[in-house]
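WARN  no MSA supplied for this record, continuing single-sequence
INFO  ligand: adenine
INFO  echoing inputs
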Amino acid sequence: MSWTARILTLFPEMFPGPLGSSLAGKALERGDWKIEAIDIRGFATDKHRTVDDTPFGGGPGMVMRPDVVDAALDHAMRDGLKPAIYLTPRGKVLDQELVKELSAGPGVVILCGRYEGLDERVIEARGLMEVSLGDFVLSGGEPAAIALIDAAVRLLPGVMGAEETLEEESFEAGLLEYPHYTRPAEWCGRQVPDVLMSGHHEKIKAWRKLQAEQTTESRRPDLWAAYQKRTANAGQSQKKGRAS
Ligand code: ADE
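INFO  complex generated
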């Protein structure tokens, strides 16, 4: 079975959307992965096909009904596909580590929320993994689902070319990318850094590493602190290895 993204949504027409183009789209055509968008409304039981209702306790907006969403999850997880992820700004922020875990598994079931949210009881009862894309609010989970799936699919075996696989390693180290340049060597009075024109591979590598470190330190103190901790620990265990 190929890696499968099964999406529960009120807007199935949003898929595959951008996932049908470029790297992910080519891999989809090759059968390296599969996408199934399932309309949550198909699991409503009344004649108006209601999926939401007003919140207990009052307040604005509508809440997705737990019974309808539970029936949709039953269907999506029928063959054991998991984990089931609920995309919400309340979730744990998605990072490359989680993307790698998801990509290494059989696939994902993704529940896209609309309205004010989802009845808390179905999140608890199903043990849904709550995931956020960041500290901002989208109008629904669908664009977040597209981003999550794109990040996972590009890590599937055979999807990326060798070049891109190498690029990956710089982020793997927990650093932001170094800056890139191409022709022309001078553009609008701006020169490409000399070292990149030197043909000196060791110097280029060292320069890129320094750039990645400086950029990470100034833009992302959180990543920088984690990187420093890891490199200090690695130094410690190397020393230990030599001592014993
Ligand atoms: N749905 C709405 N906002 C979101 C966010 N920031 N991340 C994931 N899902 C969302």
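The domain at 3-153 is CATH 3.40.1280.10 (Alpha/beta knot).
INFO  checksum written, moving to next record
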